Amino acid sequence: MSTNEMKKALAIAARKPENQKYLLTWEQKQAVQKFVREHGQRGWKQATRRLWSRAIAFEPHEQLVYALRNTHGPGWLIKVRVDEHGWVK
Prior knowledge:
It is a single chain. The protein is an all-alpha fold. The chain has a domain at about 20-80. The protein contains four helices and no strands. It has helices spanning about 5-15, 25-55, 60-70, 75-80. The longest helix has 29 residues, at about 25-55.
């Protein structure tokens, strides 16, 4: 198997089905909810982008929200929606 074929195979294996791409653990959901409550329904995504850009998270829930950047990427932040209680839909 050539190097290019190996890279393609690894890339295909790493892909997740679209419906599983943005699944969160219970702890991640709780962290997002707390973050939404702290920053409000309208400001939490902007606060998340700020957190991601400064790369400093002090509180445990901020650390989990920051880690979402690495595990779920910026696409997650664009697509994610929360309900009126701050829970991820």
